[in-house]
Amino acid sequence: MTNLHTLKIAYIGGGSKSWARSLMNDLALESRISGKVALYDINYEAAVQNAKIGNQISQLEEAKSNWKYEAVSTMEEALSESDFVIISILPGSFEEMASDVHTPEKYGVYQSVGDTVGPGGFVRALRTIPMYVEIANSIKQHAPDAWVINYTNPMSLCTRTLYEVFPEIKAFGCCHEVFETQSLLAEVVKEFLNEEVAQRSDIKVNVLGINHFTWVNQASYQNIDLIPYYKQFVEKYAETGFEKEEGSWKNSVFSSCQRVKFDLFKKYGVIAAAGDRHLAEFMPPIYLKDPETVSSWKFHLTSVDFRKENLKKRISENEELAEGNHKFEINSSGEEGVKIILALLGVEEVVTNVNYPNKGQIEGLPLGAIVETNALFRNNTVQPVFAGRLPLDIHNMVHRHVLNQESALQAALTKDKQLALNTFVNEPLLTVSREEAEELFDEMLKNTKDYLPGWAI
Amino acid sequence: MTNLHTLKIAYIGGGSKSWARSLMNDLALESRISGKVALYDINYEAAVQNAKIGNQISQLEEAKSNWKYEAVSTMEEALSESDFVIISILPGSFEEMASDVHTPEKYGVYQSVGDTVGPGGFVRALRTIPMYVEIANSIKQHAPDAWVINYTNPMSLCTRTLYEVFPEIKAFGCCHEVFETQSLLAEVVKEFLNEEVAQRSDIKVNVLGINHFTWVNQASYQNIDLIPYYKQFVEKYAETGFEKEEGSWKNSVFSSCQRVKFDLFKKYGVIAAAGDRHLAEFMPPIYLKDPETVSSWKFHLTSVDFRKENLKKRISENEELAEGNHKFEINSSGEEGVKIILALLGVEEVVTNVNYPNKGQIEGLPLGAIVETNALFRNNTVQPVFAGRLPLDIHNMVHRHVLNQESALQAALTKDKQLALNTFVNEPLLTVSREEAEELFDEMLKNTKDYLPGWAI
Amino acid sequence: MTNLHTLKIAYIGGGSKSWARSLMNDLALESRISGKVALYDINYEAAVQNAKIGNQISQLEEAKSNWKYEAVSTMEEALSESDFVIISILPGSFEEMASDVHTPEKYGVYQSVGDTVGPGGFVRALRTIPMYVEIANSIKQHAPDAWVINYTNPMSLCTRTLYEVFPEIKAFGCCHEVFETQSLLAEVVKEFLNEEVAQRSDIKVNVLGINHFTWVNQASYQNIDLIPYYKQFVEKYAETGFEKEEGSWKNSVFSSCQRVKFDLFKKYGVIAAAGDRHLAEFMPPIYLKDPETVSSWKFHLTSVDFRKENLKKRISENEELAEGNHKFEINSSGEEGVKIILALLGVEEVVTNVNYPNKGQIEGLPLGAIVETNALFRNNTVQPVFAGRLPLDIHNMVHRHVLNQESALQAALTKDKQLALNTFVNEPLLTVSREEAEELFDEMLKNTKDYLPGWAI
Amino acid sequence: MTNLHTLKIAYIGGGSKSWARSLMNDLALESRISGKVALYDINYEAAVQNAKIGNQISQLEEAKSNWKYEAVSTMEEALSESDFVIISILPGSFEEMASDVHTPEKYGVYQSVGDTVGPGGFVRALRTIPMYVEIANSIKQHAPDAWVINYTNPMSLCTRTLYEVFPEIKAFGCCHEVFETQSLLAEVVKEFLNEEVAQRSDIKVNVLGINHFTWVNQASYQNIDLIPYYKQFVEKYAETGFEKEEGSWKNSVFSSCQRVKFDLFKKYGVIAAAGDRHLAEFMPPIYLKDPETVSSWKFHLTSVDFRKENLKKRISENEELAEGNHKFEINSSGEEGVKIILALLGVEEVVTNVNYPNKGQIEGLPLGAIVETNALFRNNTVQPVFAGRLPLDIHNMVHRHVLNQESALQAALTKDKQLALNTFVNEPLLTVSREEAEELFDEMLKNTKDYLPGWAI
Ligand SMILES: [Mg+2]
Ligand SMILES: [Mg+2]
Ligand SMILES: [Mg+2]
Ligand SMILES: [Mg+2]
Question: What pLDDT is recorded for position C314?
């Protein structure tokens, strides 16, 4: 029995500018658990700053629990005696990310995010995997019984690496993309059934696929099958797209009008359950042919320059916060991390979607591959819920990515450049010639070589 | 969307003297659904009588919903347009059951129930399977979209036959044995933690195995792991047994003091989650060596004469009830059938144990075998929850029964007497010589030959 | 026991202009078996002509056995009481084939054969599958115990269809492409070891993959591992290509200089064991980018006009032969059909490569998919030999085709145009935009619509 | 390329009194290979003696090749630079073997061999597995590329242990029991077809099962299916048994009249392909009920006293031989070890039965379990041949033993006495009460405790 008020959470990547704040808020809003959070980051100063912010949040009147935040200087220190480990790191700097996203543009290959699949996601994976090897080994040594929650992308390969290195690890990955789909379905209910859905989780969905290329083949609200209503919704909004506030998609590079999602439904008959920016990258360059095409589908390419600007803002905001110059407001993040922690502590059981090794929950995908389905969380257990089989045509696309991820992992672990290249060229987004693909690959590898020790680059 | 107040339930075996009453009670206590129940039984009069009783219950003041009961004379009539099908039949008469249970006693083979495994369960399966072939074909034709809930034993083989004949069937089997284990664990909480568990389902268990030979390898209450407490409990009560009221086990042939369960924990380290009478039959004759041994383990052989007497009582009680000579009281049965029906109608989701084809929820057992694990019930879906792998020594025992069940099914479907015999002799309870086993087999087959058309007996 | 001298072979597609002759020759050269051959063809006249030719061959002095050839007018007549069934049909006419091969050229998509994968192979499959459904049903009814040998392309899908319709069928598919690889390895032995290999089959190879995209990861001659020598060979000839007679590749559209094969070895490290024309079609348009690229890799696009011309020649040649105006010469065809028939008759056992459902002989590919590996042929049995696992990067490419083939089959069986389209766009050769792909698909379907009854075209 | 005349064979258990001689003879009769044999034995003197004998055999005029034998004092010395490793050890002394075979007799449990399954085989396994752990580790370190041939019993568990410890090992196990079945089938051919089979291997059999409980479901000679003839043969000889020379079975404790084999065919319809002494031990005590029953089935219990006497004779014989006091004769042993070595050296390919991890060659048995089927041996490869699925009733019996073997392995590796006991009681031969089984287990463990370091005995 774990004492609910002396918990220790280790946060790897604890200098993070966004996820860390979400966690701090959500913890502060939950009275049933408390304890301390050890923040570890290769940028120690950032962790120190976050600790300051966290401790101030804890002091706020609205805070329902008192968590103590502390920056630590080694991973071991963070992990030792922790009950939970949260991993949310930036693999490399914005320089490498800029190469991931923008180098392919020279070859006419556009990516909306560049952190999961596509040339950018692939190269990001190559440099992230060794970091996760190190983390997994450290967890094996210092916190083998802790629950490990991953938030870093590429989600599937990060989680897969943890299990490859330490098969007994108690790890899974969380992502909020499916929540958006539930919210969208709540809009469908509103529109066609004239009912206000009380909370997102009242929309029941069967989730199956892989992270950011996740599908929903069953959706219901109470005793209402939502698939036929979604079909009508798609028919109505396929061309214009759907937004809560008209035109608002233009205000944020992270927004879209769901047109990619609707088009995929028209083509494949099942709900694609991730944001358009992610979905587009798993397909051949239908939606990402060029910037004009992207605009016509009403979503955005996210430039790394934008991210840099954005980060600057957040850094100065954080500085202000850390120094106590700003009044905080505690808002629930919409993430489920704390809810899941509660379930793992036996406080209340929850069924939600999660990235986890395939134990058979998706039929036809290889056992051990990291897949996204619902799981049942209870005291000290996560148990995937059987999700069935994807429709054949979607299965084939998903399976292709699963295969690429497996060989990307092996290439990264063995530093096998030829295997890496032979996998890289399988990315559906990459329809350039083999010669160009090889050239691009070489250039991208060079740009990230600081994080690829031991490779023949 | 199914209308929650015009439901149709088909009840195959609707003349039943016990399960039918449980259902009537539970339906009457649930205000959120209503409709009609078609009772079909080869004994039409019994169905008529139950219809009368059911309709009277519906009229009672305490009844929260108004269900209409009707006896029908064909299975087709019952099934047509039904939303749910409940199957709870007596395969054959008490004469055949008497042979199942008592013929082996001539050879020194004792059985406490004789309806699941052992020589009795095996022969019962041979005669039940053709009935389930007929039912499955009828469902395929008349109610292919209905949800089918089986209560008949042998549970695994009945459910397995449904899927063999009609693979797209939406069927599962329910049994309350695990609930008793949860209740026992609630007693453990009371004894060692001094806390009163509000409801049985607050005890969370991971269920895995096959019906009546089901195991629990994880059990918790809130954030408390109950396994170490169960261990203490077993140590304390292994010799004396455990009862809520001392000596009460002697008052009912269905009662026990859990000594078999405790002994299995001592031998195998995991909680056996069924009644002692069932568990004993899956093992070699450790607990069923002879009547004295049975008594020493503080459980009972259930004689079929007793069942006959018991039935007579219930029949006359029913007659009284049907004629309206008695005041009814509506009591919840403790079964979960109605709760599951509610979940399948999207009213509220539930996680509970169920008998269902193995989709991988138990690692290492053949896919398609009927296994018992938790499942998530939601609007129009049942999804098994991944349960993991049994400890090797238990796995071996369970697997042996799974293999026997598969060849029993094939023997029954092909009327292959040699295969049947070669399977019969694999029953762990049967340690007589091969010659005696063959003789016993012949005798038992002869006794049940009215239900084995086409066999060379 | 089958009488070796009263055999009956049914030949479906018995009007064939090439395979039929190969069989006639090989049968005539084998003294240990004899009997009759029933030739069935939708072009009855062509079958009659072949029967005449066959019977003349039987009369020749060099003929070691006397086979009787007869044209029959129904498939049933051919199949009844047959011991072996050979299937070698032309699915559709040259008009459809012309569309398969040349319509994609309008979109810049070039194919060297167009009968296996790529847009042409895919559409060919859609029209061939219904024919194979009919053949399989006829075999099930009229010759369920016969051995069935398929020679038609697309090999994998033809054979897969036979098993889908009649799972107990005793069928497999034969293709000579691997033999060419053995012959090439014999050249390697000659060049580097200065030894003349007596016969092709003395080169032992481990075969794994799918038809026409088959790989050899182990090759030996006596106790010599040939892989290192093949590596040297590739290094020497990668640029120039290899031919026995210099320049001879230009004399036949079916010839090549193995440059594709060598390049694949350089990229993937394992021997690609099919002709360059076939291999190129399984890859993205590396080798088939445009006609100039094809020439630079020293192989050919096979135009259907050429095939038409070629056929005309063969027809007039056949007419001459049928009328007895020509002197025959009996030459062994180099095919292994008769050798395998001998093995299945218990005359002598043989190990050779074959297309057969995956029973696990290739690890990691789905069970039931038609794969190509070695098998052991003995009296009345074919047993695949365990071949292991492909290297990850090759596995991914092969698996992608396997997945496409499975959904092509389902699309063809259910006449599901959307599924067909969603599969079509997965062809690696097709890197045009989604819009163009849809347009091309529609055009190609229209061109073959005579063979797609029931489709919404 | 391995030089065929500078081979090195390591012989673990090189002091052996019988297998070593077989190998020496077979090597001497084969001209195509030569080299040296390093004999390692914990009894160094015995190895020295065998070296002397081996070198004398090499000198004989009839010897076709010159092998040099040398006794070495460490396993490392034997293994280093070896091309082949042969393992044939006696695990423990005759004292432990006497306990294995005879201690159960006190409880009425009789065993005819006691080295594979049954209480004796089980306990033998417990003490052998640690020895194989050591051997496997040594091979991993000193001869990772060598081919390893196991002859020690329990065959399945010895081979399984090698793979558990060193998964990349190139190991398999050889046993001659199936050969006897081929010879018996040659007698069937003689009797009913009046033909003399030239060599045993002309009888083609499909082998499937586990060592000593191996089955043949297809058997042919040329184009003749032998199963119907075997059926007649069994009908004729079931009661009397079959012998080449009448009454000869009484002259050797290793002989039988095949009555067990015939009875199993009558019961299960498939040929049991091992000696009666082995087969009987896998079944419940049908054939081994008591010594009288054994006699009535016309086979023998092999007492360890007999083995001791027998060994004494062989020792003195060996001494004479070693001293050169006797004239040698070189006779082929009938074993296939050398033939397989030739195949692995690329000299000539062979298909024969072998014990190897299940890669899917037997459907329905767990992957990785050591099963016995045919395999194709070629230059540096062994590849199992797909054997199909056992009939359900036999499958169940075989599977039960496979499960026991897996948990025996785990018990031995983890020294888990409770798991060992829970596995021990699953032995079909053991139908005593649980109490007696526990007592017997304790006694047997104590008797072998010198070989169970680290166990809580
Ligand atoms: Mg995400
Ligand atoms: Mg029950
Ligand atoms: Mg071909
Ligand atoms: Mg043996």
Answer: 87
